[in-house]
Each structure stands twice: as structure tokens, then as C-alpha cells.
Task: structure prediction
Amino acid sequence: MKIKCGIIFLLVLGVILASGCTGTSNLEEEPGIVEQPEDEISEQEQTWVDTFDLDECNFLSTGENKYFILKTGYQLILEGYDEDSNSVELVITVLNTTRTIDGVDTRVMQEKESVNGVVEEISWNFFAFCEQTKDIYYFGEEVDIYDEGKVVSHDGAWIAGSDGARAGIMMPGTIQVGYSYYQEVAPDIAMDRAEILSDEETLQTPAGTFTNVLKVEESTPMEPAATEYKFHAPGIGLIKDEELLLTQYGFIDLDNFTAYITRQYAEEIASGVASGTVTWVLTEESEERVVYVVKMVDGNVATDVTIDALTGEVISTETSEYTEEPVETSGQITEEQAKEIALGAVPGTVTGVALETKGGKLVYVVEIKSNNKETDVIIDIVTGEILGIET
Result:
């Protein structure tokens, strides 16, 4: 890897001295121009590093640098309120799952965002650690965006090596104030970029007060006016994302943590084993495990692909004649319906909704806070029956 390039022009000698740099840029510099003061350089003239020397890296699916921990079971929880005063929770968990992306074995990190206790977005993010530079590289993400408990889109999803997308850097191993780099390089889809503003911030959060905090400004050329600020603490990672502040961090036991693959990934798996287009996706319980059933239709032939929701393993494929009859959804209730059922039994505020398996059944576990107590209401996903209440 090279260091960020800065060029000093000496007019008298006409000699250009160039420093080394982390990564390279496809923006060309013209010799013979006097360097402008930093505060006079426009946004259009700022150099953003967008090409990285991946061939020089020995990539690992686990590792850490000063401001980013990519180790199985590590979890960050950030909470706060949005501009409409809705409570927001962001749970970031490094899973015991890997995916090969563009020839690199990457680690999967799940991000789950809930608003007023209802899931709005779940993404699988793919990261790898460069052993030589300690840079954390970002190889893409799969996204499920929810509305009233149903997946309505996969906006923002991208995969390095597909449709011209390339890996970017999520967190440099060597911190250099002023370094500007792309985190995502997926034209017309995701072009997030970051500039390091400071590494000497002090920030107080519910999880503690942190010093030597890294302040990063994130932006995108797709929306030039939009900027966000994120703060990362040494040995911890992300502690502030806009209005969200860190409330909990540390390693968790993944044996008690359910992290299903995204529906988007289930659709991709099904498309790899059956021809046609996806017409619907169901979540079911089969032989004491949660599965996705993806229906692929090609002309008058329909194929149901059953996929393990935890591992992505294809369990079975069944082919039949396709008819345009309405799809039977087995009476599954949505997360929004589960929330209403739970609040009918335990008045309060919903702080979380999770899909789990209990007693051999697929259930919603609705967490409700009331009178300084937290109560879990367990609801059958098919019948809507309350199976238990745990305080």
C-alpha cells in the first residue's frame, strides 16, 4: 500500500516532489500549478482515493485495528432518537459466518436497525482484514428493508466484483488526519466516502467517556449536500453515528444469538439452483429449523427451493406445474401484528422484536418495557397465539 499523495510544487526549480500514499486515485494532477491553501481547495478539487492495492494484501476474515474490531461475537449497540423523536436502536454483530466475495474470504457483520421496537432494516456487511496494513476492507452488503414487518426492497445492496463494483476501505489501519477515501465503490448504487477530521476527540456516551476518539465525515457524490459524522473509540469501534450513542459493547455468546441470512441472499441462492424469477419467499419451520421457501417460476414450471435460514444450505428443491392461483402464506402474521398482539397482553413500549425458535416452534419474541421492567411476549408466527410471557 502507498500513503495518501500530496504534491508540493517548487516554482523556482520547477521540480515536483511527491510523497508516498495509501492507495491511488484516478484523478490526475497537473504539474506547474502553485498549491492552493487548504481552505481554498474546492470540493471538486479534493482528491478521494478510490483504488487500492488489494493484490498486496493477505486477507483474513478476522482481525482488528485501532478503531475497528472484526472478531466473531463482537457486538455494539447504539441507541437514540431520530428527527421525528422516534426511538432508534442499531445492533451491530460480527457473526460466525463467512462469505467469499470477489475471491476473498470475508467476515459477515450483521446490522439491525429498529425504530420504536420494529425492525426497519437488516443488512449483512462483508469485511476483510489486510494483514500487512491492518486496513479493514469493505466488500459489499446485502440489505433487507422492512415496512410493517415485510421486506419491501433491497436498496443499497452491492457486491464487489459484480456490475463494476469494487472494494473500498471501511477503516484504515494507519490513521492520517485529512485522508479522504472511498468506503464503497459501486457506481449508481453506493459511493460512500470518508474523510478523517480528527483523532483527538473526547466523547461521552451512556457506555462511558472515551478519549482519542476518531472523527470521520462521511459523504457521497450521489448526494453532494448530504454529510454524516461518525466517531470511533480506540479498542471499541463505532460509538456515535449521528444522533445514536453507544450503550453497550463487548463479546456475546453467539450460541444464544439468532442471525438469519437475509431474504435477498435466500433469493440469490435459489436463483443459483433453479431457473426463472422469484415470485414469493416464505419463512417456515421444517424439522426443527427455520427455513426460507423461495418459489421460482419459469414459464409454466414452478420450483420451490427450501433453504436453511441460518446457514444458507439448500435443503430441497421441488418442481411442479405453475398456476396463477393466490399464494397461501400459511397464515403467517407480520412483526407489526405480533407487536399489536403483545401490547394487548402487556401494555407498554415495544423495544424489540426478534424471530426465534422456541419449543420447536417458530415464534416472535416481542420485548416490552413497562414500569422499569422488561417483558418478553412469545407469539406463534403462524397462529398469533401467545405461547408465553417472561419478565
The chain has three domains: 55-251, 260-321, 335-390. Residues 1-43, 325-330 have pLDDT under 50 and may be disordered. Helices lie at 263-273, 335-345. The domain at 55-251 is CATH 2.40.360 (YmcC-like fold).
